Amino acid sequence: MELRHLRYFVAVAEELNFTRAAERLHMAQPPLSTQIRLLEEELGARLFDRDKRRVDLTQAGRQMLVRARAILAAADDAVKQTRRAAAGEIGELQLGYAASAMFTELLPASLRGFRKALPNVELVVHEMTSRDQLYAIHGRRLDVGILRKPDMPIPPGVRMEAWYTASLVVAIPKNHPLAKKPAISVTDLRDQALIA
Predict the structure, then answer these.
(1) What mean pLDDT comes out for the span 45-67?
(2) What superfamily would CATH give domain 91-146?
(3) 90 and 81 in contact (C-beta within 8 Å)?
(4) Rounded to the nearest 5°, which phi and psi values hold at 49?
(5) What's the pTM value of the predicted model, to 2 decimals?
């Protein structure tokens, strides 16, 4: 049994007239009658009582109508939900993030904006190292990650894009010898005691 057969049946059952049902379905009446007859043969039950002036549902037809409507509604809902999921409107998003990503307002603000824009998408966040995020994305346990670019090859099938750039800074006392320099390089910090 195909969904189109159920649609044909429901149209005839609601119209109780093959000609009107055929018009509603944008098809000719003889093929519609043939399809209903084939459906009845497949089911092994007569769905309609017919004479030259009237079409009525049989007891089997009344039972079939309830179920056919439910099946068609479920099929239509499945199509809508699938399209919504494909469009990213519903579902679940697994997001990894490096702890340092929370040091700026950008990530928390983006998470709030995402939840407001897509309230039907469950956002599941995981604090993870950059390396673990890459492996999780490659293994499809994460959908997306916010990470620092690691010093390792990027796994195949994973794409990285810059989302946020932050400068590294050094905070030192005014009287520190390096405070007099206009710029400090990483090599200047080689022998310094650091709190990172």
Answers:
(1) 95
(2) Periplasmic binding protein-like II (3.40.190.10)
(3) yes
(4) -95, 125
(5) 0.63
